[in-house]
């Protein structure tokens, strides 16, 4: 399918969704497929169905991009395993190294980074809300220096 067309990506996604819809162990995102299996024998069985379904829908899998029979993988940002889904440490390092923002633009950037990882941060919503409320209270000039209050500093440190 040519991706020059405006809606080609969405059309391809719908096509993949319909092709693999009946496979509860198959998770499709854009052109990525994650197969969740409990053990190696089940995984081999799942792969046979995926290959058959792909062939039946004239889909070609690029073997060099495939990873088979791995108990843990990085998929769409988080690290996925049978035990849990967690952020990739290397990717959250930027968040951990983030200095307290000096401008509104920097604070917005920090909040955007937090938003991506929010589901991995227990009880963080109230602290993120404090930072968001703080952002609303300060002036809208994005390059203006921020005067931090004590509650906002605590919220920033907790979120970091």
List keywords for this structure.
three-stranded antiparallel sheet, two-stranded antiparallel sheet, Viral_Replic_Matur_Polypro, mainly alpha, single chain, 160 residues
Protein structure class:
mainly alpha
Major pleated sheet: 3 strands, antiparallel
> Which regions contain 5 or more consecutive residues with pLDDT less than 50?
none
Q: What separation lies between the terminal Cα atoms?
A: 43 Å
Strand order of the largest sheet: 3-4-5
Number of E strands: 5
Radius of gyration: 22 Å
Q: SSE order, as H and E? A: HEEHEEEHHHH
In DSSP terms (H or I, runs of 4 or more residues), the helix count works out at 6
Average pLDDT, rounded to a whole number, is 85
Q: What proportion of the residues form beta strands (DSSP E)?
A: 5-15%
Helix content: 40-55%
Query: What is the 3D shape?
Result: elongated
Pfam family, one: RVT_1
GO biological process, one term: DNA biosynthetic process
Protein name: Reverse transcriptase domain-containing protein
Organism: Trichonephila clavata (Joro spider)
């Amino acid at each position: 399918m040519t991706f020059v067309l405006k809606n080609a990506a969405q059309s391809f996604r719908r096509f993949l969704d319909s092709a693999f819809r009946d496979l509860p162990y198959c998770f499709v995102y854009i052109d990525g497929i994650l197969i969740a299996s409990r053990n190696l024998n089940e995984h081999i069985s799942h792969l046979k169905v995926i290959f058959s379904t792909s062939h039946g829908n004239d889909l070609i899998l690029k073997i060099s991009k495939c990873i088979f029979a791995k108990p843990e993988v990085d998929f769409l940002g988080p690290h996925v395993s049978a035990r849990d889904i967690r952020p990739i440490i290397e990717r959250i390092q930027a968040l951990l190294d983030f200095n307290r923002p000096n401008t509104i633009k920097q604070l917005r950037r920090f909040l955007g980074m937090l938003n991506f990882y929010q589901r991995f941060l227990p009880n963080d919503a109230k602290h993120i809300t404090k930072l968001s409320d703080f952002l609303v209270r300060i002036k809208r000039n994005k390059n203006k220096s921020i005067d931090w209050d004590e509650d906002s500093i605590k919220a920033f440190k907790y979120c970091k």
